[in-house]
Design brief:
The protein is mainly α. The chain folds into two domains: about 5-80, no CATH class; about 85-300, no CATH class. It is about 60% helix and about 0% strand. It is built from 16 helices and two strands. It has helices at about 20-25, 30-45, 45-50, 55-60, 70-80, 85-95, 100-115, 120-130, 135-140, 160-165, 170-185, 195, 210-225, 235-260, 270-280, 285-290, and strands spanning about 10, 15. The protein has a two-stranded antiparallel sheet. A hairpin with a 2-residue loop joins strand 1 (about 10) and strand 2. The longest helix has 24 residues, at about 235-260. It is elongated, with a radius of gyration of 25 Å. The N and C termini lie far apart (about 70 Å). About 20% of the residues are buried. The protein binds zinc ion. The site of zinc ion has 7 residues, from loops.
Length: about 300
């Protein structure tokens, strides 16, 4: 009998004795390793009884059964694409209190791609949509030694929605950032998970370049929040400006490579960044930015 899963060493409600396990594996097992396995099974009792997934079954194939394995793995991967509702989607529906249609989700996936051509910016957007960041609440279900309380010490449970926008300390940061975005672009963006995190804001008259700028400013704010994710620290406006500045530089390099030299007419770089640069030029906001330029000093790299 192969030993592939925890359930294979189960004996009633407990696991096999050390001697039984040694006989089964025909190997000497150190008592400390045995205690580790025994301890783990106390927390993983549910996992012990779950049936093998299709992928786990493939991993168990014998040499003879391995024929056609690549095709079977492809079939499993492709079947995931047919899924109409990913786990992250249903969680977003709960957080936003609305059921989004498949068409809306297509828009969300597309907008995360078109926010920027810079891969690191796209990656950050994807991580948030897929709810990649581990929260205190989730970690406490993985290990009982972790506290479910928010890392910012507000004494509330640190769920995904709490850590990103519900925590009073984080909400203050968002309020400040959205106020500055209003000053930069003249558009009022409400603090709504659907708008801020899924890019579902629909202002028909907004110019495309300004829409792109707002999307980048929001990504920078999310990045600032993620940079102090596990710390007691709260993100600040200065951190956000610094993150935005990093994105400006990346976007400029990207624009130079893709558009500026060969297709200058396609570039909306200047229209997109002008309101932001004008704002930081008018307000003496951040040393990193202050050293870098004023609008006129910057004219040589346009
Ligand atoms: Zn909190």
């Amino acid at each position: 009998m192969q030993l592939n899963r925890l359930i294979d060493i189960a004996s009633g409600k407990d696991i096999m004795s050390k001697q039984e396990l040694e006989n089964k594996t025909q190997k000497k097992i150190h008592w400390y390793v045995y205690m580790q396995i025994k301890n783990m099974t106390e927390y993983k009792s549910k996992i012990m009884s779950t049936p093998l997934t299709d992928f786990e079954q493939i991993l168990n194939y014998t040499q003879r059964e391995k024929k056609g394995m690549v095709s079977k793995i492809y079939a499993i991967l492709l079947s995931c694409l047919k899924s109409t509702d990913l786990p992250c989607q249903s969680k977003w529906h709960q957080d936003c209190n609305t059921e989004k249609t498949q068409e809306k989700w297509e828009e969300i996936w597309s907008s995360s791609i078109f926010t920027s051509k810079v891969i690191s910016i796209r990656l950050q957007t994807f991580k948030i949509i897929h709810r990649w960041h581990l929260t205190p609440k989730r970690l406490s279900t993985i290990s009982s030694s972790c506290s479910p309380l928010c890392w910012k010490s507000c004494n509330e449970v640190g769920s995904f929605s709490h850590c990103w926008w519900g925590c009073p300390l984080i909400a203050t940061f968002w309020k400040e950032i959205l106020e500055v975005i209003k000053q930069i672009t003249s558009y009022d963006i409400p603090l709504s998970p659907s708008i801020i995190f899924l890019d579902q804001w629909n202002i028909p008259q907004i110019p495309k370049a300004i829409r792109n700028l707002i999307a980048i400013l929001l990504v920078a704010a999310k990045s600032a929040t993620a940079s102090v994710w596990k710390l007691k620290k709260v993100p600040t406006k200065e951190m956000w400006l610094s993150k935005t500045w990093d994105r400006f530089i990346l976007d400029k390099i990207n624009d130079n490579i893709l558009n500026a030299e060969r297709f200058p007419a396609r570039s909306n770089f200047y229209d997109k960044w002008f309101p932001f640069l004008e704002f930081i030029d008018m307000h003496d906001l951040h040393p990193k930015i202050r050293i870098a330029q004023t609008l006129t000093q910057f004219s040589d790299i346009w």
